[in-house]
Structure formats: structure tokens, C-alpha cells
Amino acid sequence: MATPRNLDLDLVRAFVGVADSGSFTRTAERLLRTQSTLSLQIKRLETLLGRRLLERTPRMVRLTPEGEAALPWARQLLEINDKVLATIGEPALAGVVRLGTPEDFATTHLPDVLARFARAYPQVQLEVTCDLTLTLLDRFRHKAFDLVLIKREPGRDRGGERVWHEPLVWVAAGRTALDARAALPLVVSPPPCVYRKRGISALDAARRRWRVAYACASLAGQQAAVKAGLGVTVLPKEMVPVGLTILGDDSGLPDLMDTEIALLAARTLSAPARRLREHIVRSLEVR
Right CATH number for 9-87 from 3.30.160.60, 3.30.160.20, 1.10.760.10, 1.10.10.10? Predict the structure, then answer.
């Protein structure tokens, strides 16, 4: 009878961390390990599985086909581990956690993340508020939130922890025809809005005329206006809904600088808020 082999969850966590962040440096910092220790753990996991999981070059880290296949299972192992510890290995957490988040991010990437947290900690009440980034920041400074997710310029803002990277794109209805001689009709949120600012700044730098054709604070309202052909808007590439089209280089529109989502935490956090912070970072940290 063959001797059973067991996966070391520390090795699994190292693999998932590098796969999500695309960086040995960032993962080592988050897991409080040296890069050499992290590299050794990845090699040990690869040896145990008999497969190469990651390809590493001086400029990038990417998953091999075997790594792509292993990643969903690795996530499930960590989720089961964390759930067992949450429900059996520690006192039940209870209380209220106040989270602020941009609406578009809340409707695309957060539902599954928050649902898994709610299942693991059923006695914790989540109070989630959606708003514009600058409004969220102002309310966070006035202690309205325990945690807040905000959009920000990559590499310029300090404080908080980056949990998501967003390539931005121009989006329109499939039938929208752009006249290079006319002012570009924009569908945007009222100021302050990071995407509005990013789009207008790019157009001004390219000396492309523009006008605000439709301003609406509601994401659903903006998308309805774009689908109706009233103008173009700026969205993260992974958040473009069905029915809208990403405009390519042939549109003549200028490239957009990327943005990112960062998580800010109050100086003093309750145990449930600390656990939600850890859960969000672990679930969302990406390249």
C-alpha cells in the first residue's frame, strides 16, 4: 500500500500568494517571509506535485498550464482551512463591520468575497455602503467606516494596501459611430470621480474635444445611457458588461492610465473587522 502524501498548507498559501500578486517580493512581504524562503516553498510544492507551477523571469511571474489547473484547488484548500479554524478552532466572532466601496467594484468583484465571509462568520453583521471614492475617503476620515476600498493612482498614494489593479478602457454601444471632428460625447459620474478625471485628462492631453452628454451617479444609469448610444464612458476592462463594446486603437481615442483599488483600515479595528480585512486582502490581491 502506497504511503499517502499530504499537502503542506504553508506551501499552498505561498503558491496562491504568488499566483495572485504576480510578485515574489509582494507575497514575501505580506506573508512575513524572505524571498528565498518563499522560493524554496514553491520548489518544495512543485517537487511534491511533480509539476512546474510557475515560470519566473527577471520581469514577470506567470502560471504554467499545470499551475492554472492547480490554482482553483489550492484556493479551495485554503478556504476550507480558514473556515474550519473560524468555526471550530476559535471563539465565534460577532459584531458589526462597516465597509465602504465604489459601486462598480461592489457589483462585480465583491459579492462572492463577502458571501464567503458571511458564511464563515454568520454572527458578523456587514454594513456595506457604495459611493464615489472621494466621498468614501471623506467619510472614512470622519470615522464612518472601519474599512474602505478606494480607487487611486498607482504608485502615487501611500497608506492602505493595494488589492486590485485596473486597466481602464473606453466603452461604447456596438453601434456608436465616433466623429473625430465633433466633440466626444461622454457618459460620466458627477465630480468627484476617478474615471471621469482619468478620461477627461487623457482627452485634454490628446487635444481631443469633448462634452458631457450624460452625467449620472448611478452605475446602472450610466450603462443604460451608453447602451442607448448617448456617448462613451470609461470602465475597468474586467467590469465591461454584456452589451457594451471596448473601443480599440482604431477608435482614435487616447490610451488611459491604469488605476488601482486599495484597502484602508481604521487605526483601531475590532476582531471581526480585522478578520474581514485579512479576508479581502487574501481574496482580492492580484497582479
Answer: 1.10.10.10
